């Protein structure tokens, strides 16, 4: 059984920064693909960034200059560093995992349907 729990969300003023955490338990990091996704109000869930067990990353083109994904395997924790936040970044943020290889295009890796495990989300509000 795999559980993912996000934390670190909150309210921040435009231009500020925030760090999100995703704690994973129920499995050991071996071969995986993990990502951050978000659902803005009234919009579909979209991919932000992905990192796999080889250390390869993929980012949404519009966010790659401001968001950074990383992982600490020893702590079983996934991170998302968010900088220069804008009101448009307001959303529920989710982490997700696929226990296997998620090779292919960046678009494929950022597709929500790739992932089989999801956290419940953490809210980020930018004003």
Please, what is the average pLDDT?
93
Note the gap between the termini.
37 Å
What is the number of helices? 1
State the secondary-structure class: mainly beta
**Quick one: overall form?**
globular
What's the count of strands?
Answer: 11
Order of helices and strands: EEEEEEEEEHEE
Radius of gyration (Å): 13 Å
Summarize the topology.
Layout lengths: L2 E5 L2 E3 L5 E8 L7 E7 L6 E7 L4 E3 L7 E6 L4 E6 L8 E8 L7 H4 L7 E2 L3 E5 L1
Parallel strand pairs: 2-11
Antiparallel strand pairs: 1-3, 3-8, 4-5, 4-9, 5-6, 7-8, 9-10, 9-11
What does this protein structure show overall?
The protein has 127 residues and is mainly beta. Helix content is 3%, strand content 47%. The chain is built from one helix and eleven strands. Strands 2, 4, 5, 6, 9, 10 and 11 form a seven-stranded mixed β-sheet that branches. A four-stranded antiparallel β-sheet has the order 1-3-8-7, with no helix packed on it. The radius of gyration is 13 Å and the shape is globular.
Summarize the structure.
The chain has about 130 residues and is mainly beta. It has one helix spanning about 105-110; strands spanning about 5, 10, 20-25, 35-40, 45-50, 55-60, 65-70, 75-80, 90-100, 115-120, 120-125.
Key terms for this structure?
127 residues, mainly beta, four-stranded antiparallel β-sheet, 1 helix, 3% helix
């Amino acid at each position: 059984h795999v559980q993912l729990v996000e934390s670190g969300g909150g309210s921040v003023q435009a231009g500020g920064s925030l760090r999100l955490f995703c704690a994973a338990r129920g499995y050991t990091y071996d071969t995986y693909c993990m990502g951050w996704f978000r659902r803005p109000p009234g919009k579909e869930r979209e991919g932000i960034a992905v990192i796999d067990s080889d250390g390869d990353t993929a980012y949404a083109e519009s966010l790659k200059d401001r968001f950074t994904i990383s992982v600490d395997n020893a702590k079983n924790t996934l991170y998302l560093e968010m900088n220069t936040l804008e009101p448009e970044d307001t959303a529920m943020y989710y982490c997700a995992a696929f226990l296997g290889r998620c090779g292919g295009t960046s678009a494929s890796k950022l597709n929500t349907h790739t992932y089989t495990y999801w956290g419940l989300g953490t809210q980020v509000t930018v004003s």
